Amino acid sequence: MTTQPFVLTAELQQAVSGFFQRIPFNQFLGIQLDELSPERVLMSLPMKDELIGNFMHGILHGGVISSILDVAGGAMALIGAFERHQHLSSAERMTRLSKLGTIDLRVDYLRPGRGKHFIASAVLLRSGNKVAVVRSELHSDDGTLVAVGTGTYLCG
User: Which H/E stretch holds residue 144?
Assistant: First the structure.
């Protein structure tokens, strides 16, 4: 039996986008969803005064860094779960995926978060029946790698 390649349809993209947009904290931070695909998720974050952690140097707060890495990772885990559960009806799939949550998140802060704009990317390392593992990176607007994260997500 051959499996059809997974396609992230407009309907599935809308479902992931809607899931993301219904979280008030994402809106508060100003996270923008830039790309959703089976291969990766891209999100961006414009710097604003409310996100500064080091007021002397205007550096992005570490909690904001871990948050955007987690949000990007969660979106990627959700896409991976869509692929693993494509045999289910839309209603069954959404019921299972409504339980999505972070089990573990490790963040390595590599450099200070300096810049006017930040870009988070996430790729799926593994998607199992109930758990997904995702690798995320955060870059500043000049391309500097600020932080990396590895997240484990309950997704089914």
Answer: none
